[in-house]
Write a structure and sequence with these properties.
Largest sheet: 7 strands, parallel
Strand content: 15-25%
Distance between the termini: 27 Å
Helix content: 40-55%
Radius of gyration: 17 Å
Structural class: alpha/beta
Order of helices and strands: EHEHEHEHEHHEHHE
Number of helices: 8
Shape: globular
Strand order of the largest sheet: 3-2-1-4-5-6-7
Amino acid sequence: MSDDNPFPAERTAVITGAASPRGIGRATAERLARDGWSIAILDLDGEAAKRTAAEIGGDRSVASLGVAADVADPESVEVAIAKVEARLPPIIGLANVAGVSSPVDFLDLTLAEWDRVFDINMRGAFLVTRRVVPAMLAAGVGRIVSVSSVSAQRGGGTYSKVPYSASKAALIGFSRALARELGPHGITVNCVAPGPIDTDIMGGTLTQERKAELGADSMIGRVGTVAEVAALMAFLLGQDAGFITAATYDINGGLQVS
């Protein structure tokens, strides 16, 4: 953030994949709304996106919008972001949260499964980011945060396997290179790399036994919560994080030490 382009009071954050009731995306949207952001939720389930946006906007008394979007489809992304730009304040923040898991063993892996995972986890982040960056350039300030994973750093070992780990590692490289290009324009680009979190992405809602198993190897001895990840993402998307860019923040309870 430069002195000539202060952080705007009226600003919108786009959060992808945020309609899941127990997901990191929804928790991040709630946290950002609490911090005064207008909220745009993009999700493949358009009706769920609309309901979620209405609930969060009503609870926090902020402007909100839920839009159906297939993040892997450039036309769908174009239509969705155009709706956001027409109805909400300028887009200053982007949280790339939309993602899919893949527990398929490598020798059983098909090209279709590989493409499915990369289409959502990496191509989707690229398409949405490319579409919103012009608004940030116009404002002279912006924040982009993408959700990678401890699996990118450890080579799996939690639930998902090769395509998931590879796609999440690609997000780190993407973010570092993009940060280099966009930094002179007041735009920061970072990643968070969660360890096991109590969501439904690892084959459904975690049982207490599964939580204990996943948390056993960490220094904290438990899995993380979506609220803890959302707090970190909200900070990186906020005004005070203007000197942090090209970083990957571990949030894994000490499961992986970088």
